[in-house]
Amino acid sequence: GQQVMQIPQYQHVQEGEDFTTYCNSSTTLSNIQWYKQRPGGHPVFLIQLVKSGEVKKQKRLTFQFGEAKKNSSLHITATQTTDVGTYFCAGPGNYGQNFVFGPGTRLSVLP
Amino acid sequence: NAGVTQTPKFQVLKTGQSMTLQCAQDMNHNSMYWYRQDPGMGLRLIYYSASEGTTDKGEVPNGYNVSRLNKREFSLRLESAAPSQTSVYFCASSVDRGNTEAFFGQGTRLTVV
Predict the structure, then answer these.
(1) Which of B41, B94, B104 sits opposite A103 (nearest CB)?
(2) Within 13 Å and on the Cβ side, how many CA atoms surround B48?
(3) Considering CB atoms only, which of B40, B44, B50 is closest to A97?
(4) Which residues pair with A7 in a beta bridge?
(5) Suppose A38 and one of A43, A47, A85, B100 were both cysteines; which one would form an S-S bond, judging by CB atoms 3.0 to 4.6 Å apart?
(6) What is the tens place of the pLDDT at every residue in A79-90?
(7) Are the beta carbons of A98 and B101 separated by less than 8 Å?
(8) Rounded to whole angstroms, how far apart are CA atoms A74 and A55?
(9) In this predicted structure, which of A99-108, B71-80, B97-106 has the lowest mean pLDDT?
(10) Minimal-distance CA residue of chain A relative to B43
């Protein structure tokens, strides 16, 4: 079945440093989504990418969808303590009926 | 706007006990999902319901049953709880299929002793 992998599993950064997490799928994706989960919270949708090579920005967050639509990245510029949490990528599962989530990257930001 | 509501928020069960986790959404979404989240494992799909009246197994369905009671409600039942089912359970919904934004409930923290 489809697998979605993410690296790194953990990332500790000093406040103000940049952060990047990478997502790779074993199959081509029709779209990819990114979610953020704060400690003790639930996943919250950030963005969806659909087009090959698409790049979208949300303030300090930059999302990219690979040309082959099998990988994606999330880059945070100048991290803040409010960025702490786990970032998940997700793609459509088999038959597009569900979501397959990557294992997530847990980001810690030291003040 | 309630969104996706899960009950209970916390539960402790003894091995062998049964319980039902309730989930309701008020966004008129067609698709609903149950995930479990374990440390380092991300979110794993237990069951999903693409639309009212249909349910399908996900990645880890063993030990669980579901009911899509109506368009709003999707329940998850543990018939005979086992310690391996200790986890955080999330219900989610989306407008349709797996290519639209998923909205998650607050989660149920279940401990089986």
Answers:
(1) B41
(2) 28
(3) B50
(4) A22
(5) A85
(6) 999 999 999 999
(7) no
(8) 10
(9) B97-106
(10) A101
